[in-house]
Amino acid sequence: PSVVAEGRRVIGNITRVATLFLTKTVYSVLLAILVVCFQVEYPFLPRHLTLLSTLTIGIPAFFLALAPNKERAKPNFVKRVMRYAIPGGVIAAVATFVTYLLARHHYSGPDALNAETSAATLTLFLTSMWVLAIIARPYTWWRLVLVGAMGGAFLLVLVVPWLQDFFQLKLVGTQLPWTAVAIAAAASALIEFTFRQVDRRFPA
Fold it and tell me: Residue 200: pLDDT above 90?
């Protein structure tokens, strides 16, 4: 029984973690394609991607991979992972790129580049956090703490001056940040709807 329980834990947890990593792969590839097609600068600096990957994938994946899990093992591992990762990654990429294009079109000034990349980073972070929030279900106290801590860490970066400078993240004005939040909220709602439809139409 202990061997079976350990196998269930490994398979269940690796499914969650793989979904997080492959969602990032999908949106990274799609963003690269969109940048080439629209002939614009890439919306992120390496330090932005480091922050996003650490808070929405790296740290959460560490804890989720080691967590207890009593779910029964299910077949078709690749299919179960990709049915979430592909739509999640596509929605996140499109939402982020829309925010970036709106920022480029409507904002100009000395901090234009910083404003554009910060708005895109905000949208991608919020959207990725919602994917994490879905993957972390069913919630326990420590999973709620984990998701909340990742959100709090990003908020800390936005409000502490020296962290703003280090990560080159500074929200300019009020209209652009709230536009980024609104797009992220719409994308998160679409991800939630899509994941539920996937569960309904393609049960594991």
Answer: no
Q: In whole angstroms, what is the distance from residue 174 CA to residue 156 CA? A: 18
Picking from 30, 180, 24, the residue whose alpha carbon sits closest to that of residue 117 is: 180
* 3-state helix/strand/coil string of 34-82: HHHHHCCCCCCCHHHHHHHHHHHHHHHHHHHHHCCCCCCCCCCHHHHHH
Provide φ and ψ at 197, rounded to 5°: -65, -40
Answer whether 116's CB lies under 8 Å from 107's CB: yes
Task: Output the six-digit token pair for 111.
Answer: 């901090």
Q: How far apart are CA 177 and CA 115, in angstroms?
A: 9
CA distance 100 to 98: 5
Q: For residue 192, give both structure tokens.
A: 């939630």
Question: Distance between CA atoms of 89 and 29, rounded to whole angstroms?
Answer: 9
Q: Determine the Cα–Cα distance for residues 16 and 131; give it in Å rounded to an integer.
A: 11
> Is residue 42 very low, low, confident or very high in pLDDT (cuts 50, 70, 90)?
very high
Predicted local distance difference test score (pLDDT) of residue 162: 93
Query: CA 13 from chain center: how many Å?
Result: 18
pTM: 0.91
Residue 167 CA, distance from chain mean position: 18
Topology given in CATH for the domain delimited by 2-70+78-201: Calcium-transporting ATPase, transmembrane domain (1.20.1110)
